[in-house]
Amino acid sequence: MLRLVSTVSRPTSTGLLGKVVSTHTPQCSSAFSATCSRGADITLTVDGKEVTVPQGSALIQACEAAGATIPRFCYHDRLAIAGNCRMCLVEVERSPKPVASCAMPAMPGSKVFTNTPLVHEAREGVMEFLLANHPLDCPVCDQGGECDLQDQSMRYGSDRTRFHEITGKRAVENKDMGPLVKTSMNRCIQCTRCVRFANEVAGIEELGTTGRGNDMQIGTYVEKTMDSEMSGNIVDLCPVGALTSKPYAFHARPWELKNTESVDVMDAVGSNIRIDSRGVQVMRIQPKTNDDVNEEWINDKTRYAFDGLRFQRLTTPLVKQGDRFVPATWENALTAIAEGLTASGAKGDEIQAVAGHLADTEAMVALKDLVNRLGSDNLGLDQPGGNRPPIHGVDVRSNYLFNATIPGVEKADAILLVGTNPRHEAAVLNSRIRKSWLHTPVEIALIGERADTAYGYDYLGDSAKALADFVAGKGAFADKFKNAKNPLIIVGSALSEHPDGKSMYNDLANFVEKNKERLVTPTWNGFSVLQRVASRPAAYDVGFVPSQRASTTKPKFVYLLNADELDPASIPQDAFVVYHGHHGDLGAQLADVCLPATAYTEKATTWVNTEGRTQMGRAAVSAPGVAREDWKIVRALSEVIGTPLPYDDVLALRDRLWEISPTLVRYDTTEATSVDVALAGLKLIASQTAGAKAVGTPLRRPITNFYQTDPISRASVTMAQCTRAFVKGENYGFSEVGKGSQAAFA
Amino acid sequence: MFSKLPRSALPRTVARSRFISSTPSRNSDALFVHRDTPYNNPKIAFEFDAENMKRAQDIISHYPPQYKKAAVIPLLDLGQRQNKGWTSISVMNYVANLLGMPPMRVYEVATFYTMFNREPIGEHFVQVCTTTPCQLRGSTEILNTVCEHLGGIKPGQTTKDGKFTVVEVECQGACSNAPMIVVGDDFYEDLTPKSTKTILDAFKKGMKPKPGPQSGRQTSENSAGLTTLTKKPYGPGEFCQPEFQ
Description:
The complex is a heterodimer.
Chain A: E1 41-46, E2 49-54, H1 59-65, E3 89-92, E4 99-100, E5 111-113, H2 117-132, H3 148-156, E6 164-165, E7 181-183, H4 193-202, E8 208-210, E9 217-219, H5 233-237, E10 243-245, E11 258-263, E12 272-278, E13 281-287, H6 300-304, E14 318-321, E15 324-327, H7 330-344, E16 351-355, H8 361-373, E17 378-381, E18 414-418, H9 422-425, H10 427-439, E19 443-447, E20 458-461, H11 464-471, H12 476-483, E21 487-492, H13 501-514, H14 516-519, E22 527-530, H15 536-542, E23 557-561, E24 576-581, H16 586-590, E25 593-596, E26 606-608, E27 614-616, H17 630-641, H18 650-660, H19 675-688, H20 711-715, H21 717-727
Parallel strand pairs in A: 1-5, 16-17, 16-23, 18-19, 18-21, 19-20, 21-22, 23-24, 24-25
Antiparallel strand pairs in A: 1-2, 3-4, 3-5, 7-10, 8-9, 11-12, 12-13, 14-15, 14-25, 26-27
Helix pairs in contact in A: 7-17, 8-17, 8-18, 11-13, 13-19
Chain B: H1 12-19, E1 20-21, H2 50-60, H3 72-82, H4 89-99, H5 103-112, E2 124-129, H6 132-136, H7 139-149, E3 164-169, E4 181-183, E5 186-189, H8 193-204, E6 212-213
Parallel strand pairs in B: 2-3, 5-6
Antiparallel strand pairs in B: 2-4, 4-5
GO molecular function (chain B): 2 iron, 2 sulfur cluster binding; metal ion binding; NADH dehydrogenase (ubiquinone) activity; oxidoreductase activity
GO biological process, one term (chain B): mitochondrial electron transport, NADH to ubiquinone
Family (chain B): Belongs to the complex I 24 kDa subunit family.
């Protein structure tokens, strides 16, 4: 049994769980103490080699630092320490027995041996017991080739068994964990990594261990699916083949796959991913460790929505003739657009371009340049109110970015969520908030629609009035917020789309300015906007927003760049519509000409995440059919229209990106906005929204179905299954206990 | 160790009988997963009665408020007692709710400890100790007697009339009075097949036999009579210098 912290009664002392290692602050890399032990380093000897590690490190970390590889199953440096697999045994001088190095703090001056006969014999003994009940189904096991048990048994396993049980090996029934995780519980070695992950990181406390001893099993005891948007990570964590990916089952072996490191675009976190592909198909997506962004987790949409890349794709240019789409050559399609542009008679701001969720930065820059060259400023975004200039403006970066940075969330000691449910808008970020909530006395409050966030919060209300009350200092949370050292306001991206957005932004800007000595300092910027769409921060960075004059113009020519979330009624009936994208989704239905473009796995482009961190995605597979890279399509079109863009290759285009904003070509870093500029930005918001009156419309969550938010996830079979299982709750909920109206995906 | 020897060095039959071992199947242990049944499902309501609620509050008050989940074992026991000796899923859920902890944490506790019965039991819960000291003193015979006397049931089963449930248990700590059985909360020790039958018959008739050793011993003193303290021990001051007397 693991003793884990429950959501309901969080202990006020912080020492119950081992602090999860947060490597972005080296002082905090203690696996044992909940508080950061500072300064004190200790020196010990591992295999005759001296190493210096921070006090409180586990012995296994010291051994790793000395370059000695320690086999392990249960130990994971981002989870609490369980110490139950015993595989990491090492010999310590003057210790009568081998010690489990994961559960042993490194002691100054101790002499550790990781490569002695005693150690090997001990590990061989452990391995023998693990294998005694492990089925011999490696040939049909999906973990084969990347299985810790398989790998380590090559070194520590015996070639024959000494255990002959008449009744056979232990048999455990498989659990139904929903459409994502396939279980084969006979293979389980009870390392409890999945249980620890589910309870600590994902915040689903339904997973645990039942029974004892040889009969101990992992499960939920009652029949329940694993209702979490982070559940796919337990597949990665499982050191054996007990938990494997259901959509990937029997599809590929790891050695057949080509690995490409890239960036996720399903939300604005910009999780680092590794795309595993075989031939022209993406076989699976796995997280790539990046402590500044996603640690080593990704959410289920990131991991499993890629099968949508196989369906509903646009593979050839389509031109509408009558009420039918007719396949065309690129030349014909581009000519048709040029003719359509002329025929529509669109001039100046009547030419509109709309950038969607999955538009990459290069394409947006090229399209903006093209539209500007045609004399238009009419650049919209496919969100409610996307054809108007955004409330926060785009002149100051800190007005629309997550200034506190994602790792910075863990430093906050009071968090106010305004109009956002981070669990669905940025699931990986949400797990950081949960981590902070578990280990520190952080206070969290929410203004907006109630949601199951995986941590407790004070609910302040769901409308502008609640925010006004908070700003006025009413309520217990406002007092706590006042006394916080690193207060953080997370503003949802939906706030700027809300009817009361102006008044709420006004309240917030004034509040932040009033409390600038705590909220905006050289080391801390507590005003953070959480974007939920991958392309949005880049769109704001390049200024893909309409001018005031353009926003009132009725467009005659509309260019939809990956725009599939817009309201069809916002496009005039007589306008000529071009859809440029990779899926035949909503946008393509409205179009007169469809141009097939590449999805994020097929192009090397720039993405800017909600913190303003520029990251480079990489092409893993080739595009289907005659689909072309997005910026090249725009470039080709510019030629046909007769206003050629001045860049012929991607390097020239990136020079243009640099001209617009140097941050767009400074990869993998965030640049903090200086205090003066940030305050000037807030003043700008305050002055532009001055006098706005709230009408009191309640805030609604922008994402009602986490699993289907963009054309890729809407085309995905797996995501459709998840929607059925978790959002609609079909066939599940057998033993529903303690599930109120706040069901995670209700 | 033997596997390193050449195969011919060991007669095959010997090798087989030596290597094969088996653990007894655990009939008394229920599954470690829950299945909804007509008699055990979360829809069946359970609540502490007024008296137990008072006791529960008292137990909870022993722990700091933020650690009130420490009361899970005593509360489950209280629930089991109120629920006719078994801990249904409703009892677990109720305790979880009362202590403000996720239900799974309660399920973990309830499945870990074997004294929480997760299936209904008879009116009298007969636990026969079969651990080594009891076994040496004839617990196998006692177990067989109990099973036969209750109509030929097997360990883990309940009699047809629902009066008795028999299980084998591990050491209850009454080794000096082995063999022993536990009925309900009481130990019956120093058993013979005859006295076992007497006890069971008494329970059948609705009486409650006197717990403790059935051999006439008071506690665990020597059954062959005293070997020490046979005469009055000397008092304080005896054999001392006169001034201390």
